[in-house]
Specification:
Blueprint: H1 2-18, H2 21-32, H3 35-45, H4 48-57, H5 62-71, E1 81-85, H6 93-96, E2 101-106, H7 109-121, E3 126-130, E4 140-149, H8 157-165, E5 167-178, H9 196-202, E6 207-215, E7 223-231
Parallel strand pairs: 1-2, 1-4, 2-3, 4-5
Antiparallel strand pairs: 5-7, 6-7
């Protein structure tokens, strides 16, 4: 009887650990690719304390490589508008400050509050939008998004169509999609990641180019992303 009780206790502990709410949510997202559930997941992640830490991390040396990499994609034209989807706490605002207007889009009000403070210091003309892709109503010249698709938001044909629809006739989009990293797969954290061929297949019919890039990570290892440039 003693061993049976131990077995029951052990089994209960394991099941509780596997199917705790956060893990269960990730499992459902991995199966359904649900945008609604992905948004809920992201909201749970980005609370006030996480936003404060994100703002601190924005200044880490590892992100200098990221900023230097994406700077080459941003044209020097003061007459253009830019939308930063999933702007976080404003990591890339220093690169974007020359534009006529910046739209800061994020589902976290805490992220947006900090990003707004950064934009004010840089004397940027900006507008905040709390919401997801469907919250975007304005037409913009540059759609910019780093660290969202394939992580906190599913990447599929509908996603591409929406991005394309908000671009001005001569607009372009620069964004990343998390690539499956076979060296270090984190099942519950990267349930929406895709391989490069799948990403290119989704982009078929559009004017695009892709590049697989390994970016330095806060976790100490490089992480694989596919960088997409989509032109209207």
């Amino acid at each position: 009887m003693k061993y049976i009780k131990k077995l029951i206790g052990f089994t209960y502990y394991k099941l509780k650990k596997i199917f705790k709410p956060s893990n269960l949510l990730y499992i459902i997202i991995s199966k359904t690719k649900s945008k609604f559930l992905s948004t809920i997941r992201a909201k749970k992640i980005y609370g006030i304390e996480t936003a404060k830490q994100l703002a601190i991390d924005d200044n880490l040396e590892i992100y200098e490589f990221h900023k230097s990499y994406f700077e080459k994609f941003l044209p020097s034209n003061k007459n253009l508008t830019l939308l930063d989807f999933g702007c976080g706490t404003g990591r890339y605002l220093e690169l974007q400050k020359l534009y006529k207007k910046i739209y800061l889009v994020d589902i976290s009000k805490y992220n947006l509050k900090i990003a707004s403070e950064v934009a004010d210091k840089l004397e940027i003309n900006f507008e905040t939008i709390k919401g997801s892709l469907n919250s975007i109503k304005s037409k913009i010249d540059i759609f910019f998004c780093v660290g969202v698709f394939g992580q906190q938001y599913p990447f599929n044909k509908n996603t591409v169509n929406k991005i394309y629809s908000v671009l001005q006739p001569t607009g372009k989009a620069i964004f990343t999609v998390k690539s499956i990293d076979y060296k270090n797969q984190e099942v519950y954290k990267e349930v929406l990641a895709l391989d490069e061929s799948s990403i290119q297949n989704i982009l078929k019919g559009f004017n695009f180019s892709t590049e697989q890039v390994s970016f330095p990570s806060i976790r100490g290892e490089k992480e694989s992303f596919v960088v997409v440039e989509l032109n209207k």
